[in-house]
Structures are given as structure tokens and as C-alpha cells.
Amino acid sequence: MEKALVLGASGGMGYSIVKELTNRRVNVIAFARNKEKLTRLFSDNEFVSIVSGDIFQYDDLLNAASGVDVIFHAANIPYYEWEHKLPKLIENILNVAKVRAAKLAVVDNIYAYGRSNQKLVTESSPKVPHTKKGKIRLNIESQIRQSDVPALIAHFPDFYGPNASNTLLHFTLENVIKNKKAYFVGNKKINREFIYTPDGAKALVNLAFCNDAYGQNWNIPGCGVITGEQIFSELNKINGYQKLSFTVTKTMIRLLGLVNPMMREVVEMFYLNEDPVLLSGKKYEQFLGEVPSTSYSKGLKETLEYMKGSA
Predict the structure, then answer these.
(1) pLDDT average, residue stretch 256-275
(2) In CATH, what number does 3-163+194-222+277-293 get?
(3) Secondary structure of 227-283 in the HEC alphabet?
């Protein structure tokens, strides 16, 4: 791979994918709508060319993808736009990939698996989504598979990390760096799984370099499980954070949804905070070796440092 296009480069995962690629001296087209943010993030990186555009505009994508070997799809749109806009978005990306003879590496979540009846979910686990968004993700996966574009789809748990601002843990950490009472979504006693975005990016890029990885799905787990209580214990060790934390419940999200369309869509996914889906990385390990894994202690420390530096 000599040149890649990263869609959603200004987001948390997109940012880390750009960083991982350029660390390997791959030339990158960093694509997103907000040129100012792209410039702030990547203007000092000699391997990055910044292109701002609309991911829903075919010509914008086609021009950005000129000469690229792989398109990394890390872009996202608000939940309430998924049903009507995601199929068109994927159609644009697939058509561009065909015209440019590029491979496709897709950042995906765990929604299509639905509720988990297994301790660890593998790539061969049945996908029986019970939510509207889970069904949409499964349909998108089918749309990709029915195309003739060489594509790999990577399933990740919840993200956290540098520039990953649209995440549950970022919501918590925002007040931690201000030394204010922090909010944590879900029961703090339940084991959860999060992945540090630089780890996820490294795993995805590792796969993208392997021809045999395409045409397959891959589960990329975090470094293990952790409870909310353990997260706050780590935060105490890192920066002495001792404030009492406040638990955000499903009822609270539902009430917010009465006036906020985004929160209205979050309610149906709250089951992941009560009965988390945990991923097995065995397939990846057998194919490439150990899944990139940063301890929660180090990952949280580096995320806080990034947030303070960019505040």
C-alpha cells in the first residue's frame, strides 16, 4: 500500500488510522467535511494531503480517491440519519472503489450481533440484531458483500482515545480533566469492553496490508474488560481524581430523548451498557498474531493528556 484515502479522518478512529498509516510512510488523503479541523490535525504531517468534501457527493469522493490503493471508511453520521442515508453513503463508497480499483477497509461496530448469548462473540457467531440500528448495520454489511469490491469489515467495541470526542468515555473524561463531577453511562459494576483507538487503527491497518484479509469480517477486541468503578480507580491513580461520579441511566436517556433526537435514538442501544457484547480476537491472533493492546491505565493517561493539550 502506497496511498490511502481515509474517510472521516477528523473523527476519533479516522484520526488514529491516518496517524498509523503515516507512521508507516503511507501517503494519505485525509477526507472530511471540516477543512479547518483537518488542517489543525494534520497540517504538520508531510505524508497527509487534506481534502474537504461531502461524503454524500459522488464526485467529491471520486476525486479524493484518485490513485489510492485502499479506502478506509471511518466516517459516521448521526443515528437518526442512518435509515435513510447510510445505504446511499455505502453505495457511493462502493462505486468509487470500483472505479478507482481500490480495496475497502470498513470500521464497524458490534450492533449487528444483537444480544450476546455467548461469553465471547466470534466472527462465526450468528448475527440476529434486535434493534433498528443493528438491522441497518447488518443490511449495510450485506450491501458490501454483494458488491465485487474487495472489502474487509472490522467490528470494534466502544472507542476511546486521542481526538475520539463522540464516545461514551469522552463524555466521562470531559469533566475529569476539569476536576468536576463526572458522568458514567450505565452500571459502574458491570464488566465492559473499550478499545483504545490507536490500537484499533493498528489492527485495521495490519489487516489492510494483507490480501487474504479481504472478503472477511474481523473482530478486534480491546485489552480486556473493565468496570466503571475500575476506570475511576485508574483515573485516581493517573491524576488524583476523587470526585463522586454520577450514573446515567436508561430512564434519564429516555427523558432526554423527549427533546433531543440523538438521545431518542440512543435509548434502544442502551442494552450494551447492561448486557455488553464482548469480542473474541482469536481469529485475528491466528492470522496475524497478538491483537494490539494498550492497558487501560496507559490508554486513559494518554487520552487525558491529549484532551488537556487540545482544550
Answers:
(1) 79
(2) 3.40.50.720
(3) CHHHHHHHHHHHHCCCCCCEEECHHHHHHHCCCCHHHHHHHHHHHHHCCCCCECCHH
